[in-house]
């Protein structure tokens, strides 16, 4: 087991290095001179040359990369061109908002997706299976932002039950915080619940055909005991790890959801940075997101080894 | 005498159907997949014939028709500039379907050759491509597409490139897996033993066998690409106004949610319907082309 984890850990390092190269290359795609973007109306060649020298833009590309990655490794993600704040500080202030949203979304996704998947597998090729599959497919096909707009229209505008936008931190007023985040969390959780439902269904279908399930039934155990204690416990192994991978999808989905509900999180940070042409922030956010995603992948692999007794013994 | 000849036509009937025919039969046996395909065909026809079918010019504004609710004259109402929403939804189908098809073509164009190379060459090349794919997959799809679109500049063309590049790693994985699977077949071994050069074995004998999984991946990827294009346009990074696009229509609809909710309903329904249809066809194709995967 240690060997497997060691190999997996060793693979993470080159992946992260390649991610850093990709993120660095993003800046090279930018049409025109970054110094001109930063200078705004200023066109004095001396000022432009100074900006280029400050940002190391006048050096060769590999030199620029090593200069940049050297700072990144020390926790310095650069300086926002627009807000004039360190990118790392911006990321740290916005990340907890998205994490709260993501955690709530994940709880919602699991509570919808897993039971639907179980029902769908247990009642395979019966009306309940078709309904659960239909809900799953509809969830996969609904754009996050449209679902968000429709919920605002129904829940906030028509019924007036919840605020349509804004955010209150959990530490300030937990009730208001929940009221402002429950709708976006549902929107975010919706697509993932559909994916979880599909994973749970296929894992349960395999588990329900296994010998131990037949033995459990032959022992005369009640059907729900067979399904929950015997089949589900085994089916959850791949579901847990695949579910952990969907946390990356959550980060992606947060971009649009935060935009629709005006939540000042990680997603809104990148969108605002894109429109303000604040490229260091875009690079920083992509790098942090990718690193978080790689780490979640690693965590999922470790989790898989720990919850799977056969791999643990190996 | 004639009775003795009779068994011949019966034997002809018993000839096994080709895998393609069997797959087509399995696909047609799924009503949801056939319905999905029919809806996609309708959307393509509407997109292609939009100038003929649309009741109005999608760009022409009218100050007397601002935010009119759906009526017989304007089935889906009018928008904040007095433009006919139905016409804009019809013309918007062009941007969405074009973005879906072109970005997936870009993704498959990059991903399939790389996946084929990785699976067929193995060793260091496979490891290098594998790490590159891992690195790209590490950046969540939409965040990568948004960053690429932001750095390339906002336009439908750049959005398609951004989505295509971001979707390519999934194609590399699918093509590599299918190549590894196909390369173990006896006929590939035989082609090698006959002295065919590796590129010829890969292109002539392995490539045709990875077409089914790539087709399934393409169909499902079009659904994702259409949502991604709508998302980028919603953020202002795709189709630029006044040209109609479902995503940008939803963006402007947000400002008039209380006064004109129909502006948000119809473009969203169009995205939902077309994406649902591609997902239904993708699921149908997967079950038809690889019954074991069911």
Structure description:
The complex is a heterodimer of chains A (314) and B (294). By secondary structure, chain A is an all-alpha fold. Chain A has 13 helices and no strands. With 294 residues, chain B is mainly α. Helix content of chain B is 74%, strand content 0%. The longest helix of chain B is centred in the last third of the chain and has 38 residues, at 198-235. Chain B is elongated and about 75 Å long. Chains A and B meet through α1, α6, α7, α10 and α11 of A and α7, α8, α11 and α13 of B.
Task: Tell me the β content of chain A.
Answer: under 5%
Number of strands of chain B: 0
Question: Could you name the ranges of chain B where pLDDT drops below 50 across 5 or more consecutive residues?
Answer: none
- Mean pLDDT metric of chain A: 85
Structural class of chain A: mainly alpha
Largest sheet of chain B: none
SS element count, helices of chain A? 13
Quick tags:
heterodimer, A: 314 residues, mainly alpha, 13 helices, 79% helix, 0% strand, globular, B: 294 residues, 74% helix, elongated
In short:
The complex is a heterodimer of chains A (314) and B (294). Chain A is mainly alpha-helical and 314 residues long. Chain A has helices spanning 2-29, 34-39, 45-54, 61-73, 87-122, 127-141, 144-158, 174-208, 211-218, 223-260, 266-275, 279-307, 309-313.
């Amino acid at each position: 087991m240690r060997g497997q984890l060691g190999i997996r850990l060793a693979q993470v390092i080159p992946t992260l290095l390649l991610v850093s190269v990709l993120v660095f290359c993003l800046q090279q795609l930018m049409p025109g001179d970054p110094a001109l973007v930063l200078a705004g109306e200023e066109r004095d060649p001396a000022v432009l040359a100074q900006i280029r020298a400050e940002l190391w833009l006048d050096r060769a590309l590999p030199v620029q990369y090593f200069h940049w990655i050297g700072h990144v490794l020390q926790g310095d993600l650069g300086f926002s061109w627009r807000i004039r704040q360190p990118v790392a500080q911006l990321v740290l202030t916005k990340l907890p908002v998205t994490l709260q949203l993501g955690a709530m979304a994940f709880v919602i996704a699991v509570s919808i997706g897993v039971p639907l998947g179980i029902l769908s597998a247990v009642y395979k090729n019966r009306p309940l299976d078709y309904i659960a599959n239909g809900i799953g497919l509809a969830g996969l096909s609904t754009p996050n932002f449209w679902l968000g707009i429709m919920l605002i229209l129904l829940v906030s505008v028509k019924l007036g039950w919840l605020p349509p936008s804004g955010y209150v931190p959990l530490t300030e007023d937990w009730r208001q915080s929940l009221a402002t985040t429950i709708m976006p969390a549902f929107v975010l959780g919706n697509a993932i619940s559909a994916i979880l439902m599909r994973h749970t269904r296929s894992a349960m279908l395999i588990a329900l055909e296994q010998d131990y399930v037949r033995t459990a039934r032959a022992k005369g155990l009640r059907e729900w005991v067979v399904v929950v204690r015997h089949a589900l416990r085994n089916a959850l192994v791949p579901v847990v790890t695949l579910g952990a991978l969907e946390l990356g999808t959550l980060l992606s989905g947060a971009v649009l959801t935060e935009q629709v509900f005006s939540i000042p999180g990680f997603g809104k940070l990148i969108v605002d940075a894109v429109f303000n042409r604040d490229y260091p922030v875009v690079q920083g956010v992509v790098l942090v997101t990718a690193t978080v995603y790689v780490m979640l992948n690693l965590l999922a692999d470790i989790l898989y080894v720990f919850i799977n007794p056969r791999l643990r013994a190996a | 005498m004639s009775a003795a000849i009779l068994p011949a036509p019966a034997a002809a009937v018993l000839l096994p159907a080709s895998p393609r025919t069997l797959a087509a039969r399995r696909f047609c046996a799924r009503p949801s997949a056939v319905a999905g395909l029919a809806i996609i065909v309708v959307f393509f026809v509407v997109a292609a014939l939009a100038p003929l079918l649309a009741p109005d010019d999608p760009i022409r504004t009218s100050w007397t028709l601002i935010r009119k609710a759906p009526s017989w004259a304007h089935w889906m109402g009018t928008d904040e500039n007095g433009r006919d929403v139905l016409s804009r939804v019809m013309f918007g189908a062009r941007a969405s379907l074009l973005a879906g098809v072109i970005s997936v073509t870009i993704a498959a164009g990059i991903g399939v050759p790389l996946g084929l190379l990785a699976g067929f060459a193995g060793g260091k090349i496979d490891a290098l491509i594998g790490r590159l794919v891992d690195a790209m997959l590490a950046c969540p799809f939409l965040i990568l597409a948004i960053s690429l679109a932001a750095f390339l500049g906002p336009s439908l063309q750049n959005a398609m490139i951004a989505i295509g590049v971001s979707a390519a790693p999934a194609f590399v994985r699918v093509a590599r897996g299918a190549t590894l699977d196909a390369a173990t077949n006896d006929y590939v071994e035989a082609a090698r033993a006959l002295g065919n050069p590796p590129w010829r074995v890969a292109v002539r004998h392995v490539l045709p066998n990875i077409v089914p999984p790539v087709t399934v991946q393409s169909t499902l990827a079009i659904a994702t690409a259409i949502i991604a294009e709508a998302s980028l346009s919603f953020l202002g990074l795709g189709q630029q106004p006044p040209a109609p696009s479902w995503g940008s229509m939803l963006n402007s609809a947000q400002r008039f949610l209380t006064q004109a909710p129909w502006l948000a309903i119809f473009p969203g329904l169009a995205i939902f319907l077309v994406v649902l249809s591609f997902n239904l066809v993708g699921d149908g194709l997967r079950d038809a082309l690889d019954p074991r995967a069911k």
